[in-house]
Design goal:
393 residues, alpha/beta, Rossmann fold, Dehydroquinate synthase-like, alpha domain, 2 domains, 6-stranded parallel sheet, globular
Length: 393
């Protein structure tokens, strides 16, 4: 098979390895002395790493400011942070935390040099205007393994309510300048968050691999991520939660998922995430975890109807063999094996149903009407999307 044509977004300078967080202050100081820290509300503080980082920064002559992120970033949070620190001559934004923290840091970095509120630059919003790409340098340090935000060019911003939205602030320049991944930061992540974040990474790898916009490069990245994911996902969710090597596998998988999605796009599960995120407060990883098996089943079923020899079915079967660690007799068996494995994980890890978050039958129509996914391997009609969603209420 010939190599397909492709174009790639830039990548950060990536540092990957256990114990590397100890050098983060030096990396930040390379941009200047005024550092804006963006963190979560508790984990980094409880571990003692935040106070150690601040001490190191101050001993080196640095001056730090801090923004605390308690949930998915809202336009209000971004605008408030920008208003507070726009006149502080911030040299670098350093975000240390989960996907929401990284997205918040990315958005603040992108807005510190702008005069308009962030809403003006969010895709699909009234009065949208393209961002010019000017930003304050940004360093991303993930403490969970899920979103891959440390290597993507967008920040997801959410406004939850009747007319809410969950959309992206996006520009090629928003790719972090530095991404540092230290598996030791993930050793104490609770099992339920480990599972949900891991399934976000798995969903991103599968959706990018199956995207009609995938290419030889993104396929290689996605398959490498799936290989590392499958050998350590269940262990980190169960008996090897404190194993830095296993945590490293999942951190690597999430990293690969970010590179793959940024260059190939995502499918119907993330289409649902965008439409639901503005209406209901449901953790992104949990949404991926509870919808992936059923969405995969529906995609495969619709592909078989459209074309039993569709190349996407071969890719689904290949992913099934990789995740299951076994060879299937044919493409059909491989596809069925993939769906069966995803269902097995869903039940074993007890991912909650969507009704847990207040979503009811009458809400499905509105959600389906809002959902689009040009990067899904097959175009799904409303009835297909309805079946996916209704099956997980």
């Amino acid at each position: 098979m010939s190599v397909s044509d492709f174009s790639l977004l830039p990548l950060p300078v990536i540092h990957f390895g256990a114990g590397l967080f100890a050098g983060i202050a030096d990396l930040a100081a390379g941009f200047g002395r005024n550092i804006l820290l963006v963190t979560g509300s508790s984990a980094l503080q409880k571990s003692g790493r935040l106070s150690s980082l601040i001490d190191t920064l101050e001993k080196g002559g640095g001056r730090h400011f801090q923004v605390v992120v308690k949930s998915e970033p809202s336009p209000e949070l971004v605008n408030e942070a920008v208003a507070c620190y726009r006149d502080k001559s911030i040299d670098v934004v350093l975000a240390v935390g989960g996907g929401s923290v990284l997205d918040a840091g990315k958005a603040v970095s992108a807005m510190l040099l702008q005069d308009h509120p962030v809403e003006r630059f969010i895709e699909g919003q009234p009065g949208f205007m393209p961002h010019d790409g000017r930003k304050v340098p940004f360093i991303a340090v993930p403490t969970t393994s899920g979103t891959g935000s440390e290597v993507t060019n967008n920040a997801v911003i959410s406004s939850v309510g009747v007319s809410g939205y969950k959309r992206s602030l996006r520009h090629a320049a928003f790719v972090p300048d530095i991404a540092l991944l230290d598996p030791e930061l993930m050793l104490t992540v609770p099992p339920e968050l480990t599972a949900a974040a891991g399934m976000d990474a798995c969903t991103q790898l599968l959706e990018a691999y199956l995207s009609p916009f995938s290419n030889s490069y993104t396929d290689a990245i996605a398959l490498s991520g799936l290989e590392h994911f499958t050998r350590s996902f269940m262990p980190v969710c169960t008996d090897r939660a404190g194993d830095s090597s296993a945590r490293g596998d999942i951190a690597y998988a999430a990293l690969m998922s970010g590179i793959a999605l940024a260059n190939a796009g995502l499918g119907i599960v993330h289409g649902f995430a965008s439409s639901i995120g503005g209406l209901f407060e449901i953790p992104h990883g949990t949404l991926c975890a509870t919808l992936l098996a059923e969405a995969t089943r529906e995609n495969i079923g619709q592909l078989r109807i459209a074309d039993p020899g569709h190349p996407a079915l071969v890719k689904y079967a290949r992913a099934g063999e990789l995740l299951a660690g076994r060879t299937f007799s044919d493409v059909k068996a491989g596809c069925d094996g993939l769906v069966g494995l995803l269902e097995e994980w869903q039940e074993l890890l007890r991912f909650p149903r969507l009704g847990t978050y207040g979503i009811t039958g009458p809400d499905i129509g509105q959600i389906v009407n809002l959902t689009r996914s040009k990067s899904n391997p097959v175009q799904l009609d409303d009835s297909s999307m309805y079946r996916i969603f209704a099956s997980r209420l």
